[in-house]
Structure formats: C-alpha cells, structure tokens
Amino acid sequence: MKVESGFIAGLTLLVCGCGIRARAPGQPSPDSQVVRPDKVTSFAALYGANCAGCHGAEGKGGAAQSLRDPLYLAIVDDATIRRVVRNGMPGTPMPAFAQSAGGMLTEQQIDAIVAGIRARWGKPDAARGVELPPYAAHDTGDAKRGAGVYAAYCASCHGVSGEGNERASSIVDGSYLALVSNQSLRTTVIVGRPELGAPDFRGNALGKPMSAADIADVVAWLATQRPEVSGQPYPNAAAPTAVGVRQ
C-alpha cells in the first residue's frame, strides 16, 4: 500500500509539474497576446481607430467627406487617397497619419486602409458612361465667371449670396471656408453630400451637368469669400487701449 501510494503521489506530482512547465499560473495563453499597435493591419481596426470619428463608422454620416460614396471613389485614385492619409490636408482638420509626417501609422497600415476603402466601398461600374470631371483642377478658375455659375447652379438652395436659406446652409460662412481647402470645395461640388441632400455635379440644374470649367470657376468664386482671418470679435468686446492709458 505504501509503495502504491508513493507511486500515485509521484505520478500526480509529475503531471502537475508538466502542467506548470507548460504554462505557469497567470501566464497568458498564446492566443491572448496583445498585438503591438504598429503591427495591426486589420482594416476594421485601423479605420475604426483613425478614420471613423470624422468619416463615419461605415464610411458615411460623419462630419467629413463620405468615403463610401462610389462617385468620390470614381474620381480619386489610390495614390491620392494614400497621399491624403499619409500627409493630411494642410489648412483643414485632416491630419497627417504617417509616422514619417508625425502620425502613428506605418506605411503598411496606410496601405491597408487604402486597400480596404477601395475593396469595401468602390463600385467600378457606378460611373460607367459618365464624363467625370478631374479630381484636381487643371487651372485656378475665374471668380467673375464663377459668380454666374453660382447663380445658375447653387443659388436656388444656398441663397442669392450664398448665405443660406430654409433649403440649405450658408456656404460663404467665414468659419466654414477657413476650415476647408479649395480642393475640399471642389470635391464637394463634384460628388455632393448625398447624406445632407446636396446633389452631385449632375443634379444642380435639371438636365445640365456642370462642366469642368464651371466647377473650377465656382470654386474660385467661393475662395474669394474666404476671409484672411476667420472669426470676429464678440459683440461686447472692449476696444483695445494704448499701453499705460487707463479708461
């Protein structure tokens, strides 16, 4: 009996010892290891952490341009999306995300975001047969002609002077124009904001899509409405006084 008991005790100790050597108490299992932030390549994780706050959880419905818009993805190529994600858009709320530009993402992660946007939301046939304006302007446009273009295509919704009415908001507000670049204005004119009821370049005037020249000209006109310094003093702000003079 003593021999048998000693054998069982020794076997038990051996089995437990093997278990301890395999994984000590408190040691995480292999499938619970935390992935380093710079090694995350899942589009869902990267987009959710870096893009959804402005562009919407599903690529639309956010404060910024919808990335789920097939027309937008038809005019913009992967190189442009990659450049914007990498370097941001100076003068706008779009920051740079590349590590080389002060951001947190590696080139591999940026490639994963670009590929995911294209694979999930791009529809190659969405603009088939449509003569698309180029994403970037070939010239700066003519602001004087742009005033007439605005009157023909935009005033019915945004008001005669662009200050808005019951149908749409102001597009000459100084604070708004200070936050958007000319390229941002151009993109909005071309693809619209469907989620806000704003049509694309084909739907502003019945049966008469805007030409590339029309788009460049109206953007030039909008740019002239942008103040050099955004904002304005509060109504009850005191006037500045000379140094050393009391009032």
Describe the structure.
There is one protein chain. With 247 residues, the protein is mainly α. Among the domains are: 39-121, Cytochrome Bc1 Complex, Chain D, domain 2 (Orthogonal Bundle), CATH 1.10.760; 143-224, Cytochrome Bc1 Complex, Chain D, domain 2. Helices cover 44% and strands 0% of the residues. The protein has eleven helices and no strands. The longest helix has 21 residues, at 2-22.
Helix content percent band: 40-55%
Low-confidence segments, given as residue ranges, are 242-247
**CATH secondary-structure class of the domain at 39-121:** Mainly Alpha
Averaged pLDDT? 86
What is the N-to-C succession of helices and strands? HHHHHHHHHHH
The CATH topology of the domain at 39-121 is Cytochrome Bc1 Complex, Chain D, domain 2
Distance between the termini: 106 Å
CATH superfamily of the domain at 39-121: Cytochrome c-like domain
Rg, Å, rounded: 29 Å
Structure described in brief:
By secondary structure, the chain is mainly alpha-helical. Among the domains are: 39-121, Cytochrome Bc1 Complex, Chain D, domain 2, CATH 1.10.760.10; 143-224, Orthogonal Bundle (Cytochrome Bc1 Complex, Chain D, domain 2), CATH 1.10.760. It has helices at 2-22, 43-50, 52-55, 70-75, 78-87, 107-121, 143-153, 155-158, 174-179, 182-191, 212-224.
